[in-house]
Amino acid sequence: MQKIISFKAIQTFEAAARLSSFALAAEELFVTPSAISHQIKLLEEEIGVRLFHRVHRSVVLTDVGRRYAHEIAAAFARIEAATRNTGCTEKSDILTVHSAPSIAAQWLMPRLARFSALYPDIDVSVHASTDLVNLTDERLDVDIRYGPIPLHPTGTLVLTLPPETIVPLSAPQLANGNHPIRTVADLRHHTLIHSEICLVRWRDWLRDYEKVKLDITRGPRFDRSFMAISAAVDGRGVCLESLLLAERELEAGKLVAPLGLDGPKVSGYTFNVLKSRADLPKIKNFQEWLFAELAVGSKWRNYK
User: Fold this and answer.
1) Where in the chain is the domain with CATH 1.10.10.10?
2) Residue 168: is its pLDDT beyond 90?
């Protein structure tokens, strides 16, 4: 078994080496000089080498003692810096969230300030990508995914987020321009923007309007919903997107739903966390906050 060196002895040695005096070290540590001498002797016996030369009433580090003192001083400096930096963060936890890009950009990021206001001791770090991630390595706490997941790892808690409503959206100047959009047939006069990752595409949406023939082979295509929404805001055409993701643009009047707020509903997003970590306060608080925010909704998503 590896011998454990007394931390008290190391602390005593650091003070004596730094001050070049057992007496001064005793004053700093509020002990007697004999106690200092005893701890130094104990340390020398534990490591098997002399650290100080005793010369009359003074002490001088041996060559080995000088090298050891240098290493100990550096270690104490690192401990002091780590303690200082930990205190300066003023945060108890860091919550690391991996998220699908569009819900991160369009919905989560604008609301994170509310979470921070409720839980000021938790810092949130968000990583947005469509990559499949491994929660078991514990570098990530939460994974908010979109679409089907090939296989949920054993021990994963999977919660489905409330369903989204998918409707055509456009800039108001387009919906009320030279070719107003009042019926599905009016979409013939407009460019259709395609969200290729959306679970409901134009072909799916048009199944309820078999008599209307639209050219769905043309139009710009995006593999991220937030880009399709941005293109619609810029007046490039009509996108078929989620009211959840377009909530800010609808609130600001940058987008309108010219054919109404009723549309197909899909449950595309899931909240994923390891069951073994689900009850950690930072994860539990975030989960409860997120689902509460989704439940509140807005006048757009609360439309019946």
Assistant:
1) 7-89
2) yes
